[in-house]
Structure formats: C-alpha cells, structure tokens
Automatic annotation (TrEMBL), chain A:
One of its GO terms (molecular function) is transmembrane transporter activity. This is Nucleoside ABC transporter membrane protein. The keyword tRNA processing does not apply. It is found in: Cell membrane. It comes from Rhodovulum imhoffii.
UniProtKB/TrEMBL annotation, chain B:
It is a multi-pass membrane protein. The keyword Transmembrane helix applies. InterPro entries: ABC_transp_permease. This is Nucleoside ABC transporter membrane protein. Keywords: Cell membrane, Membrane, Transmembrane, Transmembrane helix. It holds the Pfam family BPD_transp_2. GO terms for molecular function: transmembrane transporter activity. The keyword Membrane applies. GO terms for cellular component: plasma membrane. It comes from Rhodovulum imhoffii. CDD domains: TM_PBP1_transp_TpRbsC_like.
C-alpha cells in the first residue's frame, strides 16, 4: 500500500471512528453508573433523523444538532424512567428504544418529506463543513508531515474534534472530579453512595442524560457531517459496535479511543477494499464486517485479558427503608 | 402474600400494557394525519377478512411462535436470549443444506430431516454464548447480539461466494427441489373440504408450531429439567443448594432455546421462500421478545401473542399498501409492547397493586 492510499484509509478511519467513539463514551458514562444501555443504536438513529430533518427545514445545522441531541436525550429520559424510576429491566428497555427509534424515524420521515423514509439531501449551511486547521495550507508541501497534517489531521468537521476532545474530558470527569467518583461509585456500590447521603437516582439520571447527549452528537454527526441527510436505518449497527468497543475497552475512556479507532479502521478497510489478499489467502469483506463482534466475543471469553463490567450494572437500586 | 391475584397478573397487566401501546399507536396514526379507526378496520379486513389474509396472519404467527417460545424458554432460566435472529438465520442454513444436498422423494421424509438440521444449527449458534455465560460469566445478552451480527456476516459470505448458483446475480441459493415442497393450509384444509386461499404461504409448519407449544409447556411444567430450569431462574443459590448444576442447566436451556428459534426456518425458508435468501428472518427473532413478554412466557400466551403480531404484520402490510402509513408503524407498536410489558411493567403494576390493596381493605 502506498503512502497516499494509507493516508486515505487513515483519514476515513477517523471519520468512521468518530460516531463509534461518541457512542462508546456515551455508553461508558451510562454503564459506569450501573445502567446497561443497549439502546445506543436507537438514540443515535433518532438523533440522526431529527438533526437532518431540522437542518432541512431551518437550513441551520446548529439547530439540527440541538434537535438531534434533544431527541436522543428524550429517549435517554425514557430509558432512565424505565430503568431507574420504575426499576424495570434495563436490557428490555434498551431493546424497546432501538425499535421505537427504528420505527418512528421512518414513520415521521415519510409523513414530513414523502421520500420513502428519508430526508432530502442537505446542502450548504444545513451540513457541517470541513474545518481547515491553521497552517494546513502552508505546510501542505512538506514531505510526509505535510500530507499527514493537511489530509489526515486537518479538514474534518468540528464534531470530529469534539469527539476526540471528549476522551480526555471523559477521563478527567470520571477520575478527577467529585461527580465522577460518585458516578463510578453508583455503578459499583450504590448502597455506599446512598449511605454517604448522595442521591443514587440523581447521579444515575445525570449519567443517562450525558449518555443521551453524546449519542445525540453521534447521530447528528452521521446525518449532517458524515453523510448529507437521513436514510432509513442509517446507524447500521454502529450502536452495537460501540457497545462492543466499550467491552473491548473494558469501560475505560482511553481504551475506548483505541478500540473505536481499531473498529473504525476495520470499517474503512472494508469500505475501500472488497476483499483483501494476504499472501494467497483472500480475506472476504464479510469477515471484516464481523471482526469487531468476533474480537469482542474473544475478549468476553476472557482469553485475552478479562473484561469485568461495573459490579452494580444492570440492577436497579432499591433504597433501604 | 402476593398483592395481585394471579388472574390479574396474567391477564390484566398484559391487557393494560396492550391498551396503552394501542392508544399511543393511535396517537401516532392521528399525528400523521390518518384516521386510527379506519386504519384498524383496514387491518382487520386485510388480515382476518379473508382466508388469504388469515393465511398470511398464520404464516407470520408461525414464525413468531417459534422465536417467542425460544425467548420464553430462556426467560424461565432468567436468561435473555436476544439472539433468536441469528439462530433462526443459521437454522435457515441448516434447512437449505438438507433440502439442496439430498434427493428427497417426499416432504414427509424431508421435513423431519430439515427440522433436525434447523434445530441443530440454531442450537449450535446458541451454544457458544451459552457456554461463555455458563463458564466465563460473559453476559449472554451481549454475546447473543454479537452472534446475530456474526451470523448475518457468515450467511452473507456463504450466499454471495459459495451457495449462489453460477451466473445468478441474486445472493440466494437455487430453488429447493419439488420433493421438499411442504403442503400449505390450502392443501391440508382441502382434504376435509374446507376452502382456503391458495396464494397464502401458511403451511404445515403452523401445526408443528402448535405442537411445539404443547411440548414446551410439558417441558417447563411437567419434567424434571423444566423444574430445574425454573428453579435456576427463581434463585441460583437455592438451585445450587438443591443439587442443580447451573452450568448444565444454562447450556441445556440455551440449546433448547436456540433449537426452537432455528426451527422457525421450516416455515419461512422451506415453507414459503423454498430457497435461502439474505435476511430471510426479517426481524422475527426480535419480535419473539415482544411475543414472549406479552405471552408471560407461557406457551399458550406465546401462541396468542404470536397470532396478534401475525395480525399486526399482515394488517400493517395492508395499511402500507393502501394508505400513507408505512410498514414501520408495526415496528413502533412492537417497541411499545416491549416497552410496556417488559421495561415499564412496574408502571402498570404499581397502580394496579394500589387498587387491589384498597379493594382488599374494604373487603376486610
């Protein structure tokens, strides 16, 4: 592989890893607080639709982003209601949210735009444009470093940089703030947090809200930055890949970055090459598609390091009386 | 003492949840400017108004009985098998291999063999997540989700690269030979002189699905294994204390669950398409979750819920054909049913408990 196509694949890796990273960090906040969330997919999908729809109608991508985040946070609130307030089954609630989003987005899209469950293509200010970082043009012709800076690091939409900035921010919030300590504690030993006089319910709702916010950005990125508009089921399993990445990353922010970059690379390679020839052995594209899931199962099997989820994950907290 | 009498738990709570889901769905229909009453009329007419409609309703219901039973059996051991989709996909592969590679003289011979293959392939696809859950403690929900995707990729590869006939563009196998053709309800009811639509895909698999309901009922409530499954589901420490080995029960439960999901393939692959196509399961694995939740994990409840969803599916197709309401409305209804009967169960239960408590106080 020559240098130019390497840069192209890595560039596409960054684009494809961004929604995975945002959704993975979203799941990280929720699951660290003890709320399993397999509804990442649905939240992203609803955000993708409402951001594209709002951007179409208003012509403003900023409003689109806000609408997408609001839709995603609405579903997050529903998940919180089911799993925190009514102490329901968090997994079933996640499944329901995924179907709710899959169905409602198409029903509403058909009603609003009559284009078979999609939004019209977004143009101009209705879509996030690429940002050119300082000196990108001047450094362009420097060998090696120039293309890396100009083509790989510069020229993405603002949401890409937001996603990457979220990694240290997430680490800082979780491991260096009082809120983060409490959030992790309600995921491990909610009774201890309750004894200390901190609201388990409040902390868990906050975590679920952050999860909704990040999924919202991820969905808006899909429809208004990566692609130009919403199409039916456009998340295409990304919420589940993010879930896989979360396990792969053992619920840690920096590992989440590497895991989502790896899965993004797999997607980028699968997108560019239909099959890969490795010294006479042809790797079919379907194997590339399945690899994130296979790797996650291997990790879960505990053959390569052990992934231990937060201890109180999935169990509703019942206050002692 | 339970606050709610058993009949209320079994009938009233699912009914309330269903009414809530129906009201919200009606709201959605209103919001997109259509008439909910007319929509329901059209659905009833399209799904139940003719033997053609019934043929489709029962065809869909057959799929959902198998996947619903699969989820229900696993729920009894408190395992959430969300992998019915992948298990049914692999079941389809088993059916296709049996039907294509052996010269079958008559369906009476082909059907048991195809069923065995479908069950075996489904069970194998459930076995790895089951083993990981039993031995390694990996969460079965996550692993079965992963196996859905792995199964889809595997089938995609096989259909595109291996099983597709030379020269065909379509990623599908060739048509199954005539010796594997299953009798449809038209053929069966014709024997006793009852006229039934010839075009509808409902076939003998529906009767097998009914048999599966009876077998699962007998398994869960009339056998030692069923008792062990339920004991494990109620309390693992108590089950261990009683000498039940959790690893064995988890494995057996999931093998049975996977086999049930896999057996769906005799209906959709062997009975309807008569060849294996991409995405042949079409989400029936996930509808199994809604069906099991609504049916309260009881085979009879599963059967009723499966027929209800069969009705929704066929009715929804009619709506999409004649109105501006897309088929995805059914996905919304399905989501609402899962939400209310599964996740927001307490939202319906707690007010109902209050009502029963006040009634009881007054009575006392």
């Amino acid at each position: 592989m020559d240098f130019v196509s390497l840069i192209a694949v890595l560039d596409s890796t960054i684009r494809l890893a961004t929604p995975l990273l945002l959704a993975c960090l979203a799941g990280l906040f929720s699951e660290r607080a003890g709320i399993f969330d397999i509804g990442l997919e649905g939240k992203m999908l609803s955000a993708a639709f409402f951001s594209a729809a709002t951007a179409t109608i208003t012509g403003s991508v900023g409003l689109g982003l806000l609408a997408g985040v609001a839709a995603s946070m609405g579903l997050a609130g529903l998940h919180g209601l089911a799993s925190i307030t009514f102490r329901g089954n968090q997994l079933i609630s996640g499944v329901a949210i995924n179907f709710l989003a899959a169905g409602l987005t198409v029903v509403i899209a058909q009603d609003w735009f009559q284009q078979g469950g999609r939004t019209p293509s977004l143009l101009g200010a209705a879509r996030f444009g690429p940002l050119t970082l300082p000196f990108a043009q001047t450094l362009r012709d420097v060998p090696v470093l120039g293309p890396v800076y100009h083509d790989l690091i510069s020229g993405h939409t603002v949401l890409v940089y937001v996603a990457f900035a979220m990694v240290p921010l997430t680490w800082w919030v979780l491991f260096r703030t009082r809120f983060g300590l409490r959030l992790r504690a309600v995921g491990e030993a909610p009774e201890a947090v309750d004894t200390a006089g901190v609201s388990v319910t409040g902390t868990r709702y906050a975590a679920v809200a952050i999860c909704g916010l990040l999924c919202g950005i991820a969905g808006a990125y899909l429809a208004t930055a990566l692609q130009a508009g919403f199409v039916k089921d456009m998340t295409a399993g990304r919420g589940y890949i993010a879930l896989a990445a979360l396990i792969f990353a053992k619920w840690r922010p920096w590992y989440a970055l590497w895991a989502t970059l790896l899965f993004g690379l797999l997607q980028a390679v699968a997108l560019r090459y239909q099959s890969i020839d490795l010294g006479g052995v042809t790797v079919p594209v379907q194997l590339m598609d399945a690899l994130p899931y296979i790797l996650t199962v291997v990790i879960l099997a505990g053959f390569v390091g052990r992934a231990v989820p937060p201890r109180a994950g999935g169990t509703p907290y019942v206050k002692e009386k | 003492m339970d606050v709610i009498p058993r009949w209320a738990d079994v009938i009233l709570i699912p009914l309330f949840s269903l009414v809530l889901a129906a009201l919200l769905s009606a709201g959605v229909i209103l919001a997109i400017g259509e008439d909910p009453v007319a929509a329901v009329k059209m659905m009833v007419n399209g799904a139940l108004g003719s033997t053609y409609g019934w043929g489709y309703t029962l065809y869909y219901a057959t799929n959902f009985v198998f996947t619903g039973l699969a989820v229900a059996v696993a729920f009894h051991a408190r395992l959430f098998n969300i992998g019915g989709e992948g298990q049914a996909t692999l079941g389809g592969l088993g059916v296709a291999l049996v039907c294509l590679d052996l010269p079958w003289p008559h369906w009476i011979l082909a059907l048991p063999a195809a069923m065995a293959a479908a069950g075996l392939f489904g069970a194998v696809w459930a076995a790895i997540p089951a083993w990981l859950q039993a031995r390694r403690g990996s969460h079965i929900v996550i692993t079965t989700i992963m196996f859905n995707f792995i199964g889809a990729a595997l089938l995609n590869y096989l259909l595109v690269n291996v099983m597709r006939p030379d020269g065909a563009m379509d990623p599908a196998t060739r048509k199954f030979p005539p010796g594997t053709h299953l009798p449809t309800l038209h053929d069966i009811l014709g024997l006793v002189g009852v006229p039934f639509s010839k075009a509808a895909p409902a076939n003998i698999s529906f009767l097998i699905a009914l048999g599966a309901c009876v077998l699962v009922w007998a398994l869960i409530w009339r056998t030692r294994l069923g008792f062990q499954i339920r004991a494990l589901g109620h309390s693992e420490p108590a089950a261990v204390y009683a000498g039940i080995r959790p690893v064995r029960i988890v494995m057996l439960t999931m093998l049975i669950s996977g086999a049930l999901a896999g057996c769906m393939a005799i209906n959709n692959v062997m009975g309807e398409a008569e060849r294996l196509v991409l995405n042949s399961v079409e989400g029936a694995g996930f509808i199994g979750i809604a069906v099991a939740l609504m049916g309260r994990n009881h085979p009879f409840g599963v059967l009723l819920a499966a027929i209800l969803f069969g009705f929704l599916y066929q009715g929804g197709a009619e709506l999409a054909l004649w109105t501006n309401i897309p088929r995805e409305l059914i996905v919304v209804i399905q989501a609402l049913v899962i939400l209310f009967t599964g996740a927001l169960d307490n939202m319906v239960r707690i007010p109902l408990e209050r009502i029963f408590l006040t009634l009881r106080k007054r009575g006392a």
